[in-house]
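Email to the structure team, subject: Response regulator transcription factor model.

Hi all, the expression group asked for a predicted structure before they design truncation constructs. Nothing fancy, just the C-alpha cells so they can compare against earlier work. One-line instruction: predict Response regulator transcription factor, return C-alpha cells.
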Amino acid sequence: MRAGEATNRSGCGGAACYVVDDDAAVRRSVALLLGSAGYRVETFEHGDAFLDFADQELPFGCVILDVHMPGSDGATVQRELVARGLPHPIVVITGHGDVSLAVQMVRAGARSVLQKPFSGNALLRATQEAMTLRDDSGRH
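Reply from the structure team: attached below.
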C-alpha cells in the first residue's frame, strides 16, 4: 500500500525509489532517509501491493526490496519485475540473514544486499550506486 511521497531536496534529480517492506517502522525510516536525500519515495507494505502498482508506466527508480514478506516475497517480486520488462535496479534488504536467497537475488540482477540493521549511509550509497549503474549502462 502506498504511504506517500517525499520531497526533492538534493542533487539526485528527484529520482524515484520504491520501498517494499512489511515492517512499518522500516518503511517509515527508509522513506524519511531517502526523501531527505532528494528521492521521490513510494512505500508498499508487501510485495503484492507493489506488484499491483507496478506496470509498464512505472517511472524508473530503485526498488528497496525486503526478502521475507507475507504474500509475494522479494525473490518473487524481482522475478515478476523482470517478466514485465521493468529493468528497475533492486537493493535487497533482509533482517533474516538468509544469505543463500540474497545471493540468488544478486545472481538474478539485484544490485546489492544490505542486512538489517543497516546504516543510513550504506543505504544511500547502495541506492546511488544502483541508479548510477543504470545511467552508465545507457539503458533508460
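Strands lie at 16-20, 40-44, 61-66, 90-94, 112-115. The chain has one domain: 16-137. Ping us if the truncation boundaries need rechecking.
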